[in-house]
């Protein structure tokens, strides 16, 4: 009888532990903490340089909006804990006692090569601030691993049945594929109890890496990255932690881009889980949500972060733990700049560290008599102000952090019209559509590493100031069969054919130029099914087939297409607007300042050819012009031919790849261009060249028709008034 009772009691404990794991713990371990979870800790690294390969922390109140701690700098020195001087892929869990924390990281510096590491680092803490650590070099620790090439992405889970912490990770030996292994940690969490054993591999996959195990819905769910017939996140499910995993043969990620570093966590107070992963070729993270661990919905639009994480994990924390982290690692300055009002242009908030002044650019029409910038507070943080009226100048704010004191700031809210579009966009093309009586901007979707965007959007306005996001109008992955990468530099023209308006949209994809057609300026657009221009003209040896520009000659009604990087080519379009007249292809010759981004417009019997000089990553990226007497004529270069250039006093850089717009019925002109993001762009190095934003400023002419150098501004233009028909 005693034996039966003991067995029943043991099983009851196991079921209790599993229930606790399923209900509140994404790490698969018992949670003895009594205080309810009220926040989240995101642990991550940031990149492939040695300074990026370090453990960083971020905090969130709701699991959707994250703020970096310690100003996105390392919270633990990689030099002091690792054998290589760098660590990657941090994973953190709460221990079975509810108050001890365990973290494991890859001991690796990528500069030494992807087959350079043999070790991992084990860390332990009771307060999330102070950590002890030890290194396990598997090749040195266990004989017979001479062919071991790499040890990647360790993670930890509490095995309730064994009463131990199981560490699992991928290893690659020689020409064998990467496989997932496991070993139990010793009681001190400083070493393994025994040699690693294989946990999972499926021969259908070229490799299995980046495992993440979660106990939920009565099963162990192993999420992992696979390569082979595809590239992405799959899961395998088992009743047992250490064996019996059955792979479900479907990809779970919500993108066709390569991904890695799957991480799962349960939302506090909800029966929902988040599956997140690193879209590493884009410099982005993607988040999905699920209720059944089968159907995953992309929720990127709900997420915000002020940092760019690589392969990290999220753990639920209590209010007390959050307060401790905030006190240790959240600067006052990071609180006052964390504004979330929908009336704010968040990527353009400016902070003057010396003057302790925050300048908040707001959307057109924002009521500054009663404005709440939406400054986010965290446990232990309070933010107070005596007024919400910003019309009389700066408003004094006080930020207080428990146990740390307080700091005062001057906060300015002001309506700035540049950037014109909220977010990262570049290479804008603009038209006025007679069909709708509105303006439309068609930009490159920016903010992706190496210009790796794959979709195009459209924005509409009735006054050039208030812009509506019309959404994605062409997605290479869904709408284009002949190219899936590098969606760049589109242009559009409105034509009336047989009494009906048609819109011909020319775009760059995979360094070729395509054309799509729609009956409306906002789409849907239907691709022609093949490139319009796939190769450089025969006489051109270098450069790229990119950056189309379309121009309709008001004298003849004929339309022309221009293109090229490193060369400027032009040709007359056929009447169908989806092909060019090959016999008209002309290599135009401006001067050696030409780089890319041709744009042609007509004013007072003069054809203006404009282009961008230098590289888009260069602060001196700028626009020059010449004139001709016809759409394919000889380009004459004025002595002073700068159209728009940087303004260092205003910290405006990289002003280029533009178009122009004339207000219908008026000799009133504007230039639409992109610049580096303000204020951070100039600090980003080459990355500034793919973190750009669209601006609009006045374009004026001298009496002789020459272009006055335009002045780039932050204030932008006033709303234009259109004549009613």
From TrEMBL:
Swiss-Prot/TrEMBL GO biological process terms: xylan catabolic process
One GO molecular-function entry: hydrolase activity, hydrolyzing O-glycosyl compounds
Keywords noted in UniProt: Carbohydrate metabolism, Glycosidase, Hydrolase, Polysaccharide degradation, Signal, Xylan degradation
Family annotation (CDD domains): GH43_Bt3655-like, GH43_BT3675-like
Statement: the UniProt record of this protein carries the keyword Hydrolase: yes
Signal peptide as annotated in the record: 1-19
Origin superkingdom: Bacteria
The keyword Flavoprotein is assigned to this record: no
UniProt xrefs under Gene3D superfamilies: 2.60.40.2340, Glycosyl hydrolase domain, family 43
Listed SUPFAM superfamilies: Arabinanase/levansucrase/invertase
Similarity section: Belongs to the glycosyl hydrolase 43 family.
PANTHER family hit by this protein: ENDO-1,4-BETA-XYLANASE, PUTATIVE (AFU_ORTHOLOGUE AFUA_2G04480)-RELATED
Record protein name field: Beta-xylosidase
Organism: Niastella caeni
